[in-house]
Specification:
609 residues; three-stranded antiparallel β-sheet
Length: 609
């Protein structure tokens, strides 16, 4: 009969054997010592009971029994005994602990932690009897502590000679606490710190010498830091830039405050003074300066008047009144005002003249803003104000007829003109008496005979000045005027002053290049400016610019701009329409013209009758 197949694996066999053993034990317990025998397919107890036995429960062979025993032994070993790797690891940790204790007991405190760990690792891999020699070899490598003398020599070698005794002692102590390998970097740091301190001291001295006392502590520190970040050769430029920026800020504040009444020298000095003070104080300092204006300007005017020889005759209250007039006007006009005032000087007669020059009454009366006067008396006073210093009779006669006819014409038109009045000399009275009863006419009517001081070389057209047309008030040659005193005059205005005048007068805001602020667009026959474009924004007449903006002597002018300054040169003096007073004088004295020739030249087409 074929044997049934066994289940594979020793564990199956083990379980079968155990089961059989249990069955036998039960049989013995149940039947005592009764016969026990096995049939091929059953287990028989001593009481004659038969128990079936499966193929798997049959007794194993010897080979199977041996395999079952080995399997059981291995399972028992695996559950009760530790592995070999676990044992080795535990042993290595015990060795390491022992090695660490040996290193700790040795005199190796000078080793770094990493060096100590490396030594322990070496000892773990060596037999224990070699440990002492390894530790001894390490002890022999213990560095010798540096000496004080070595530290001092190192300090001297590094060139560190600026420390005082306490500083040197502190550095020696620091070195002796270090390994010699650290000395180089420590000493280099000392040198670097010293050089940085010296450089900072140099920067502080440069700032102190730069006249920057106005700086706050924070501003000063910021500037020093800026210097330290730059080569020393750049310091002067940086400090100079600070001074320049500060000065420009002070000047701008002065411009905003309108301190143009100061002389250029005093303006510059005050700007320098402000730049040296705290900006927090600028407003108060400027207010103090503004409070000085009247006294300051008065003193300037007085000094200028003292130096003006042609006004030595002006004394007393007349002088004081004139000084007040100067104080109220722009300083650039003082020269012109003084020249005009000089014309009022009483002239001593060069020749004796006891003649009686009372009015004949032929001219009647004339009215001006100052009142109504006998025409003769009024004309004498007008001529005195206009030509008071001259004695040439032909020039005085021409002026007398021009003055009389001018006021007569204005009165005939219902107007009351404003005229200057002076104190007539006998020469003036004589000239006026000689022409009393005459007047200048055009088409048998009194002419509008305007006059002025000096032409540009030609007289002006009335239409270019006032807009009206008069056949006899046209441009004529007067080149002889170029010989007149004061024919040419220069005026200078800085950029800020010019800006203020143009913006205030024209109600604009200048935006373009200052060189283009005043663009002369047209001239007439007499070279008088007829049209000016201001900053490309507004167009005005030369007369308006002369009278209402710049306050210069003539509308015949040139304009130049250079480096923040305007230079304006004028030619002639006055509006230029009608008779040139200097021309009349020069034609009479140098050309021998009489008064009628003078009048007919300057008022072409008119007659004296």
């Amino acid at each position: 009969m074929n044997r049934p197949r066994r289940a594979s694996g020793h564990k199956g066999r083990g379980r079968t054997a155990t089961w059989v053993s249990c069955v036998l034990a039960l049989v013995l317990a149940a039947g005592g010592a009764g016969a026990l025998w096995f049939a091929q397919d059953s287990l028989v107890t001593g009481q004659g009971q038969t128990l079936p036995v499966s193929a798997e429960s049959q007794a194993p062979s010897e080979e199977e029994a041996s395999q079952d025993q080995e399997e059981s032994s291995r399972e028992e070993d695996s559950s009760s005994a530790p592995s070999s790797s676990q044992s080795e690891e535990s042993s290595r940790e015990e060795i390491r602990t022992k090695a660490l204790a040996a290193v700790t007991e040795a005199d190796l405190d000078w080793l770094s932690q990493s060096a100590r760990d490396s030594l322990v690792d070496q000892m773990v891999d060596l037999p224990e009897d070699q440990w002492n020699s390894l530790i001894a070899a390490q002890e022999e490598q213990k560095p010798v502590p540096p000496t004080r003398e070595e530290a001092q020599a190192a300090i001297q070698g590094a060139g560190i000679d600026w420390l005082d005794s306490s500083g040197a002692e502190a550095l020696i102590t620091q070195l002796l606490a270090q390994d010699k390998s650290q000395w180089e970097s420590t000493l280099a740091a000392q040198v670097s710190d010293h050089e940085a301190a010296l450089l900072r001291q140099q920067a502080e001295e440069a700032v102190d010498e730069g006249d920057l006392a106005w700086m706050t502590d924070d501003q000063r520190e910021e500037l020093i830091s800026q210097l330290l970040a730059q080569p020393t050769q750049n310091w002067a430029g940086i400090i100079g830039g600070q001074e320049t920026a500060r000065l420009e800020a002070a000047q701008q504040r002065m411009d905003d405050a309108s301190l143009s009444w100061l002389t250029q020298e005093d303006w510059d000095d005050f700007a320098q003074y402000l730049a040296g003070e705290s900006s927090d104080d600028w407003d108060a300092l400027i207010q103090e300066k503004e409070a000085e204006r009247d006294d300051y300007v008065y003193n300037l005017a007085e000094a200028m008047l003292d130096d003006y020889d042609d006004l030595d005759w002006l004394t007393g209250q007349d002088r004081e009144d004139f000084l007040q007039e100067l104080v109220e006007m722009r300083r650039g006009l003082w020269q012109d005002a003084m020249e005009e005032k000089a014309l009022e000087e009483p002239v001593e007669e060069e020749e004796e003249d006891d003649g009686d020059y009372d009015s004949s009454g032929e001219w009647g009366e004339l009215t001006v803003t100052a009142g109504t006067y006998d025409a003769y008396e009024l004309v004498c006073r007008i001529v005195a104000a206009e030509m008071g210093r001259w004695t040439n009779q032909e020039a005085l006669k021409a002026q007398a007829l021009a003055a009389y006819s001018y006021v007569k014409y204005e009165n005939s038109q219902g107007r009351t003109p404003s005229v200057a009045l002076g104190s007539p000399t006998s020469a003036i009275k004589k000239a006026v008496s000689a022409v009393e009863g005459e007047m200048i006419t055009y088409n048998n009517r009194v002419a509008f005979t305007t006059y002025f001081s000096i032409s540009s070389g030609r007289t002006n057209n009335a239409s270019d000045v006032w807009g009206g047309h008069y056949d006899y008030l046209v441009s004529v040659d007067s080149a002889i005027d170029k010989k007149a005193d004061g024919y040419e005059r220069e005026y200078t205005f800085d950029e800020d002053e010019m800006r203020d005048m143009l913006e205030d007068a024209l109600d604009i805001e200048l935006e373009g290049d200052p060189e283009d602020w005043i663009d002369i667009r047209g001239h007439n026959d007499g070279d008088y400016v007829t049209s000016v474009r201001i900053d490309g924004q507004k167009t005005v007449s030369g007369r308006y610019l002369r009278e209402s903006v710049l306050g210069i002597r003539s509308s015949a002018f040139d304009v130049e701009y250079d480096d923040g300054e305007f230079l304006i040169t004028t030619y002639g003096y006055g509006h230029g329409v009608g008779m040139s007073q200097w021309g009349a004088y020069l034609y009479a004295t140098q050309k021998g013209w009489d008064y009628e020739e003078i009048i007919e030249h300057y008022y072409p087409g008119t007659r004296v009758r």
